[in-house]
Amino acid sequence: MKRQYDKEFKMDAAKLVVDAGKTVAQTARDLGIAEQTLHNWVKKYKEDKEGSSFVGSGYSTPEKEATRDLQKRVRDLEEENAILKKAMGIFAKNQK
């Protein structure tokens, strides 16, 4: 059975290794997870700190979330705008 960990747990575990200077082995034992799992999280965390994106990896920074939210909002507004333009066209035809 595979355990699921939330994003915050993964990031906090990786921070213990990277920022606090603890070893992967000791941190993994302390948290009760496999060393390789923690090693993968640390690798992703380091990549994220260097500026690469974590699309689909489960990690997200507030800026990335805000950008995604804004992009979704723009798409929604563009769709609403297109619908309103079509409606205006229909009403304009009915006025003649």
From TrEMBL:
Transmembrane segments: none annotated. InterPro entries: Homeodomain-like_sf (IPR009057), RD_transcriptional_regulator (IPR051839), Transposase_8 (IPR002514). Residues 50-70 are annotated as: Disordered. This is Transposase. It comes from Sporosarcina saromensis. The lineage of its organism: Bacteria, Bacillati, Bacillota, Bacilli, Bacillales.
